[in-house]
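Pipeline run #58 for the internal structure catalog. This entry was flagged by the ingest filter as a single-chain record with no existing model, so it goes straight to prediction. Upstream metadata was stripped on purpose; only the residue string is passed forward. Reviewer on rotation: M.T. Logging verbosity set to normal.
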Amino acid sequence: MGPESSCCGTGRKNPALSHDFHRASNVGCPSTSDPLNLVFHVFFMVLQMGKSSSLLVSFFSLLLLLPSCVLGENPYRFYTWNVTYGYIWPLGVEQQGILINGQFPGPPIDAVTNDNIIINVFNSLPEPFLISWNGIQQRRNSWQDGVYGTNCPIPPGGNFTYVMQLKDQIGSYFYFPSLGFHKAAGGFGGIRILSRPMIPVPFPPPADDYTLLVGDWFKANHTDLRYILDSGKDLPFPDGVLINGRGQYGNTFTVDQGKTYRFRISNVGLATSLNIRIQGHTLLLVEVEGSHTLQNAYSSFDLHLGQSCSFLVTADQPPMDYNIVVSTRFTSTVLSTTAVFRYSNSGGRSSGPAPGGPTIQIDWSLNQARSIRWNLTASGPRPNPQGSYHYGLVNTTRTIRLANSAPVINGKQRYAVNSVSFIPADTPLKVADFYKIQGVFNLGSIPDNPTYGSGYLQTSVMASNMRDYVEIIFENGEDTVQSWHIDGYSFWVVGMDGGQWTAASRDGYNLRDAVARCTVQVYPKSWSAIYMPLDNVGLWNIRSENWARQYLGQQFYLRVYSPANSWRDENPIPRNALLCGRASGRRTRPL
């Protein structure tokens, strides 16, 4: 029947599942999307056959003999990660970096829709540590989200095992360290989720699949950057741009002439939007954060903080070495770096300069963003077409307007949402909510609309209800591009434009083929609007992807609540959950 496993990852480990695409055979297994349903179904069959004690005994004996697939029909992939400090030289200057199993960036996660991922993280740093999974929705399972609002940190010398399922997801994502300012030291890596066999994909299999983790970088250690922020100042301008942890010409991607390749690109930087281009070649956009897109061709493409996408690139030029260029956008000083796109039969470097890209042009970027559309006929993680969900025909039940600002509070630079600058509590919010610990946070501690008043400090949590269908407008009155991410969800970007949002702005919404994604940019003096069904119970972080702004308060938590208190809506607290703060010493749940 395939490798033994269990729904909590406690079955015997099969090394064949660790890091490859081996699939467990499920021939003859009943459908077990909800194993408890199957158990009760068998139980009622026994009752219908008769109420004798011998039959009931036979039923419980049957439970012990159920095949492993009943407890977990989807394969498990096991990882063990050791997180350490180590010296790195990405811009030619020695720095203290965060390594995972000695690697910078960290090891990739390669998986298939619905796979179960078991990652045992050992923290060998001298301070607490957490990893979060940008774009992984953690269906019914915010316990695994890996941000301080949901998880107690892994203490120095300790470990924590993340147990999560990539439920109904495909696409390109990344993970990163979420505490303090660790993200400025590394600890990030790529996540690739392939479609299941027999699920149609709207393009032929590429010859190879490359991941590019791009981002701005500082030469200063992350501890020095954190000290600057803690002192109430803003960060200096970055020192460079990296591709997969390396600087100028630090990466070479080899291709065969005439073949097509997939490039998955994520902006894992701290401060700047980036533009990507490949000399002499066209970028055919095929996927954005789990959504198959209309296959538009671009000569260069803007990727904002925290965003991910996929391109197909065909090696259809004379066999030479070409430049892959990544440069900063909307900055007075333009930083750039270059990698090599090398034909296997290359005759040398191509002539001519590396391709230039846009610099400060906002309208150019806005028009490009509007051109990204959902492929309505393509399948997503399921066989039915993406467009079978008519998001634009559903009436919204609530409108939330969120305005970013940069107040000075108590003499220090802070950042805020609707005038509230978030401060962490002494206990993770999800843990406090589960144990009903009073005084950690208050629901409604952030308003639904901008107040335009003075900024203030608060552990801000917004209340919401399961199955609400919300319209969220991100309003940016500042002079810099904003990038917003919502954990636990994918949403439709129905509109974006310059100026002030009003109710009349809805007339221009795209209610047919807006792309679904988890991170959206908001241009200076502009707004972006999204539609989002609240179908994932939990406490979810809504944050700026500009990491200094996030660190200094431009974030809050959305509590999506279901009164049913059912495992159908939300998983119970993990047995291995770390407890800290006011929850220290409590029990999780019986073994």
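catalog note: Helices lie at 35-49, 53-65, 68-71, 222-230, 362-370, 429-435, 547-551.
catalog note: The longest helix spans residues 35-49.
status: ready for reviewer M.T.
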